[in-house]
Amino acid sequence: MELHNGAAETTPMTHTPSAPPPFGRALCAMVTPFTEGGALDLDGAGLLARRLVGAGCDGLVLSGTTGESPTTSDTEKAELVAAVREAVGDRATVVAGVGTFDTRHTVELARSAEKAGADGVLVVSPYYSRPPQDALEAHFREVADASGLPVMLYDIPGRTGTRIEPETLIRLAEHPRIVAVKDCSYDFLGAQKVIARTRLAYYAGCDEHNLALYAVGGAGYVSTVANVVPGPLRAVLDLFDAGDTRGAAALQRRATELIEAMMASGLPGTVTAKGLLSALGLPAGPVRAPLRPADRETVDGLRAAYERLVA
Predict the structure, then answer these.
(1) What distance in Å separates the CA atoms of residue 143 and residue 4, rounded to the nearest whole number?
(2) Where is this region: Disordered (predicted)?
């Protein structure tokens, strides 16, 4: 290490995970397009999936929070996986959201996703019933045992009412098919603890954490905002990997306005993503009740923030 003007010269940081991320780095939590009449729009889903993959997404997560999974039927979930699989082929991983508040139902959905062509499953903590940690652990193990697909656990206590505690995650990491976590815990210390003690691939589930989690060994992100700006978000990771940490940080900061507008405006990300996608002429369609569409003023604000980011 040489010294110049009293400062230490260091080698730029790059991202060197211990193993390749199991589902890729840049994943989009894709909306589920519907027709104006509210039916599943499989053609639109295929078009959107191809656009996202072409713009830098190397994985698509279907039927998650952004995909309105509580309002889609089991048949629709399987049809969506099959349509997206056909649309993107082997150019991207397809992860199917299968989590419910019922272990038996979740097992059925995992097996259905495997038959439909998914590469993995996203399993959220059972919501409403708020199981204790030992029951939560048993739930995840039973789902992981039910199919041959790798599992991404989804920790989002703000919606489910139950945290997957770090010690529980550390134990679950011993299961050969539990390989990843989508982290919406807002516990950065807890996330770092699990990253340090396991081989679980940690994906940021909150877009403001994309770069920060990646910098401490995370695998990448599962992003709602990527529905509309897949390229810039992917570029943040690419810049960091190339050693341009200042450039990565600058681009992450530039994205902050749109991230805040989409994810912290008091509306669900599904509503803002579909409103902006529709304004851009991209497949989305309406949201299903009980959600309601974004109003014109909100959409105009989203469009302005989007244009400032991509300008």
Answers:
(1) 56
(2) 1-20
Q: Are 270 and 66 in contact (CB under 8 A)?
A: yes
CA–CA separation, 239 vs 248, rounded Å?
Answer: 5
Active site residues per annotation: 154, 182
**Tens of each residue's pLDDT in the chain, 311 residues:** 333 344 344 444 555 555 789 999 999 999 999 999 999 999 999 999 999 999 999 999 999 999 999 999 999 999 999 999 999 999 999 999 999 999 999 999 999 999 999 999 999 999 999 999 999 999 999 999 999 999 999 999 999 999 999 999 999 999 999 999 999 999 999 999 999 999 999 999 999 999 999 999 999 999 999 999 999 999 999 999 999 999 999 999 999 999 999 999 999 999 999 999 999 999 999 999 999 999 999 999 999 999 999 99
Q: Which residues of 248-271 are buried (b: 16+ CB within 10 A; e: fewer)?
A: bbebbeebeebbebbbeeebbbbb
- Classify residue 202 as exposed, middle or buried by CB count within 10 Å of its CB (0-12, 13-18, 19+): buried
Q: Nearest Cα to 76, choosing from 123, 110, 40, 107?
A: 40
2 C-beta neighbours (distance < 10 Å), count:
5
Cis peptide before 232 (omega within 30 of 0): no
CA distance 36 to 43: 13
d(CA 298, CA 14): 38
